Amino acid sequence: MQVIKYDICGQICPSTLLTALKEINNYSQQLMDGEITLVFYTDNRDAVTTIPESAANMGYTVNVTKMEKCYMLEISGGRK
What we know:
Layout: E1 2-7, H1 15-26, H2 28-32, E2 36-42, H3 45-57, E3 61-66, E4 71-76
Parallel strand pairs: 1-2
Antiparallel strand pairs: 2-4, 3-4
């Protein structure tokens, strides 16, 4: 499985959400097929809510991990 990483630290909402949604849509088929995982690193607290909620509403699996200086959002798993 391929992992594609994005560092969106320093961005604020709605920019963080728009960036994530653009990439989710760009890779929707590969995400659905379980071929890739998208990983977003963000330091924006709003993004820790908005991105996972939006991705989950689209049917994707989302894991949020608090790291030392940011959050890691993993979007994968295809549609439920």
